[in-house]
Amino acid sequence: MDFSKIEKLIDGLVTENTTPEDAEKIAAVKAELGVVKNATFDFADKYESLRQKYVQAVTQSTFKGEPEDANPEPKGKTLDECIAEEEAKMKGAK
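Below the sequence we write its predicted structure tokens.
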């Protein structure tokens, strides 16, 4: 909503032919528009602040660090590692 454009349109209603009573009514409408304008901007600021807090809360409670690989690929063993494991098993079996 472009409040400045609306204010200019309201200001355009007051001419030299406008009666004092009509000018007062137009001024009252412009004052109410100012109240609505301030309330709208206040609401938008509060909404943005709340939105940022919500995003931060969800991010902090949901995404903890880097994701872990759900299916890690098994690592291959060298021949020496396999022989060392088998020797360890044989020593433990005795």
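The mean pLDDT is 86.
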